[in-house]
Amino acid sequence: MAGWALLPLRLFLGGTFVFAGLQKIANPGFFDRSNPTSIQAQLASAARVSPIHGLVAHLEPHAVAVGVVMALGEIAVGAGTLAGLWSRVAAAGGMLLSFGLFLTVSFHSSPYYTGSDIVFVFAWTPLLVAGAGGVLSLDALARDMARARSGVGPATTVPIPFEVVQRVCGSYDAGACRALSGAPCEPAPCPYLRVGSVTTPAAGPGDIDRRTFTLQGMFAAAVAAVALAGTGLAAGLGRLGGKSHPSGTPSGSSPLTSGASGPTGATGTGTGSGTGSGSSTPTTTPVKKPVGTRIGAAASVPVGGSATFQDPRSGDPGIIVHPDAGTFAAFDAVCPHEGCIVAYSPPAGRFICPCHGSQFNGKTGDVLQGPAPRGLGRIPVEESAGDLYVT
């Protein structure tokens, strides 16, 4: 009964973790440093607010490897949970992943139950204790196959009322047990049940355990092959889709292509000589040389739209908006509440934090709705000769 009762939880947790892992692999933006939702941006954000920020800071240079391990770990945990294979090991892995996300992403959620990661930690507890419960489980299949090959029947527990045991027991006598010198008949010390539970099988327990482990290993190899094939397919489809949808961000903002990492040396001079005598063409005045770092072309940000970039000064993910023709505004995309990355909503003209619902003015960055204590950091931006520069 425990196995059937836990089956909906198994399906939810297993399916969620497989989906989460495949989503990371299939999203080109997850490994793109310039994308505000990338693993690099998430680690940089966690390094500021996480209680284990020291450890997270050391992982930042290896962000891509961390992202790959996280995605494959989620797929392995999810696949093992769905298949009922090494169920307790998969549950332990799920708890560790969820607890790690709790410490890096949702530790400061207030009240605590608004952060989903802590809920996932405890959701894994029943599966850690009971495993798959022998229901639709490769663990149970491997065990039964091993017992059958050893000449032993399936290890099936059949619950029956204790009164049935009393009726078939030859030592039962009017509520007392003759085998225990007239002691009251009770389940715990019952010699009938005790003798029945230690009947020696045709093969030793060690032999069955070895056969079971071997079969589990074979099943694990098959599940891993299927999971890797699915992962490769998801990655391929994600890369193909990424060519036409390069952003991969919730807001639909396209990432700008950064220029040189240092201050710009662009001349931005106009064209035309203006030297011809009597020419009606006026002399073109050289465009003022911009100060700052080029982050991309102004045409990449449509009127009413937005684009993402990496702040060359702080390394934080940034977002630039084009609310009115010829007017640009750039902001630090890190929410000042708990470090999540905000997204721009063109219909609302606002920045919205996906973690706890804070909202910010799309033109000024001022906070419109908490729990954020203040607005988004403003980044000076300038347009020159069709390009955008930030300082």
Q: Could you say how many structural domains there are in total?
A: 2
Strand order within the widest beta sheet: 4-6-7-8-13
Largest sheet data: 5 strands, mixed
Beta strands, count: 15
Radius of gyration: 32 Å
Overall pLDDT: 80
**Beta-strand percent range:** 5-15%
Distance between the termini: 64 Å
Low-confidence stretches: 196-201, 243-252, 258-280
Description:
The chain is an alpha+beta fold. The protein has 2 domains: 2-138 and 211-244, no CATH class; 254-275 and 286-390, 3-layer Sandwich (Rieske Iron-sulfur Protein). Helices cover 41% and strands 14% of the residues. A 5-stranded mixed β-sheet has the order 4-6-7-8-13, with no helix packed on it. Strand 7 (317-324) and strand 8 form a beta hairpin. The longest helix has 40 residues, at 205-244. The radius of gyration is 32 Å and the shape is elongated. Mean pLDDT is 80; it is low at 196-201, 243-252 and 258-280.
List the helices and strands and how they pair.
Layout: H1 2-26, H2 39-49, H3 53-59, H4 63-83, H5 87-104, H6 116-123, H7 125-130, H8 138-149, H9 162-168, E1 172-173, E2 176-177, E3 183-184, H10 191-197, H11 205-244, E4 254-255, E5 293-297, E6 306-310, E7 317-324, E8 327-332, E9 343-345, E10 350-352, E11 359-361, E12 367-369, E13 378-379, E14 381-384, E15 387-390
Parallel strand pairs: 4-6
Antiparallel strand pairs: 1-2, 2-3, 5-15, 6-7, 7-8, 8-13, 9-10, 10-11, 11-12, 14-15
